[in-house]
Every structure is written in structure tokens, then in C-alpha cells.
Amino acid sequence: MRTWLMGSALSVCILGCAAPESHAPGSADGTCRRSGCSHEVCSDEDVITPCLWRAEFACYRDAICERQDDGACGWSATPELKACLASP
Fold first, then answer.
1. Residues 6 or more apart from 38 whose CB is under 8 A from it?
2. CB 3.0-4.6 Å disulfide test: which of 58, 74, 81, 85 passes with 68?
3. 3 pLDDT exceeds 80?
């Protein structure tokens, strides 16, 4: 079990949670990357999320995090990701 104190909230991870990565502002080159405690967010900046685990987060392990047509970072809706999210 891992415990982190972030701001005024205490987050507890039980198996499957990764330590928060850098809390610096967005990357200089604007590339998209996995973020959040369980790497469940695709963003061009670091995002702090509660360290909770949901079955669907496993679907993002092999998902593609990249800039989408609207210019925002996001998960590409591949057939594999859609199938996994339908039945995590």
C-alpha cells in the first residue's frame, strides 16, 4: 500500500497505483502523455487525480494517448480500446 499527501487530501493506493509523476506544468513540446495516479488521463500536462483503481483503467495500459483532431490530447478510440471499455 502506498500513501501520498497531496494538498490537503490524503490518497491511498492499494496495488496497481503508480506514484504521481512530475507536477510541473505542461511539457515544453506539447506532447501528450499518460497522467493521473493510475495513468488514466491523457493530457499535455501533468494531472493529479485521486489514487483510486477502476477496472477500466487497465484498458488504458495499451491505449494510444495522442493529440486528437480537435487539437486536445485524448485516448484514440481504437477497436481494441472500445472493446476493452465495453467489458473491462
1. 16, 17, 18, 49, 51, 52, 53, 54, 57
2. 74
3. no
